[in-house]
Amino acid sequence: MISVSKGRRDRVNPWTYMLLVLLLVPFLFPLGWMFLSSLKTQVQNTAFPPVWVFVPTLSNYREVFQKNPFFTFTVNSLVVALGSTGLALLLGLPGAYAIARFRRTGIALGILTARMAPGIGYLIPWFILFTKAKMIDTYTALILTHLIVALPLVLWVMMGFFEDVPGDLIESARIDGCTHWQAFLRIAIPLAKPGIVATGILAFIFSWNNFLFSLIVAGFKTRTLPIAVYSFLSYEEINWGGLTAAATVITLPVLLLALLVQKHIVRGLTLGALKG
Amino acid sequence: MPVFTGPSVLAVTLLMAFPVAYTLYMSAHSWFASSLTSPQFVGLGNFRRAFVEDDRFRNALWLTVYFTGLATLLQLMLGVAIALVLNRPFRGKGLVRSIFLLPMVATPVAIALVWMMMYNPTLGVMNYLVGLVGLGPYKWVSNAAVVVPALVIVDTWEWTPLITLITLAGLATLPIEPYESALIDGASSAQMFWRITLPLLRPTIIVALLFRAIDCLKTFDIIYVMTQGGPGFASETLNVYTFQVGLFYFHIGYASSLLVILFALVLGVSLLLIKVRRGAW
To answer: Cys bridge to B50: A122, B57, B82, B129, which one at CB 3.0-4.6 A?
Structure first.
């Protein structure tokens, strides 16, 4: 069946579309249901059998923003995500370049192992240290813990992108009198730019989505969006409309960002094990 | 090139080597995160306690293996099957691939929340949907007997696309010659799949399996948000149990030894699969 599809690209089997729809619906449904529920009233959300056709209302969104400091949570999430992504790129780009260029495979393997270790293993020691240093509930502590995810990601994924930069270009720049730094800044960085953008966006998404680290390190002042939504859950009477509205507000930016870098996302999610 | 690698190696070391060393040190101690008493050296006592005395640990270990096995197997079969469909010629490939990305990048807390709503035993849409084909109603995550499969469904929804996309990348690099000669020899498409495609894809599939197995062992967000390890301890995997021991009860020493065990498990799976992969080549 593979060879047939390779051989005759022009012929499209109508059954393929049927199959595609059957496959796509389950993968889209939960996100669609989240969005639909955010436009329903509480009565519609608690109806059984579920309501499929209804007049949409934006009252849930209004309520979420009015009743909660949702704007503060968003700012917190943005500060932490941008801070950890920026720092990871600043520290990680030269490192990734050196590992790729000078074949430092030992360092690379160390980073991969570090990535495989369970997150809680990093969280407990840092939590104790931050508690002693009275740094719990500060941006610094949050950014540092999010860096634990972002830095290996940048190092590992960018390593692959820097390997794709033709070595001849770097060599000739060196012969023309460029220092290693100049070759890195003027040749490698511009050539790897699409990769840098994609990696940056991925690091941002991972930080924005992070639950475990923020759950422990963030407090009232620095509470990020995922923790805010999680805390809404503990209310006695669950307001599904409000919750799904909040969930939609958190998820939508990430989905849009992911679509921007979709070409590189698999590479990033597998930490560069696959190029493509 | 110390100027280049220096800052990042230093940062990685500070961020990650310190916790690793601390965890290893603490795993041989008993300490309750109190400033009044200092850590007590217990040698391998924590590990003995885990394997000999702690039923909750053994339950967690089993659930971790159960969850990981079920989830990886399901995702592998579904993921490869979907990749084969997506590899057929059709219009709108870019759009379909984009849609498959969405579950992986959506915020896990939001995902957990939506599935909790869908799994609601009395009002949830899942019971309505399975009811249409004459199944259910189930209590999903509120029933100890089905909570793990219910969580596996969520993880499968979230991560099958990864296997699909990895397999698709592998399919794109397959050589065309074996298929041509197979066609000449009159092979059926089923034969070509089992005899050519699958063996050629094996390395790719094993990489995908490796990534999923490692991450499944460490699954935290969706389990913690949806069940917190419950009902009872019916979905308390090793990662969730360790979180409770370390950051809820503050038994730092014991939690550290549980982490060593979890990491050994992760490392074991990686080594095993790397070995299998080498053998395949």
So the answer is: B57
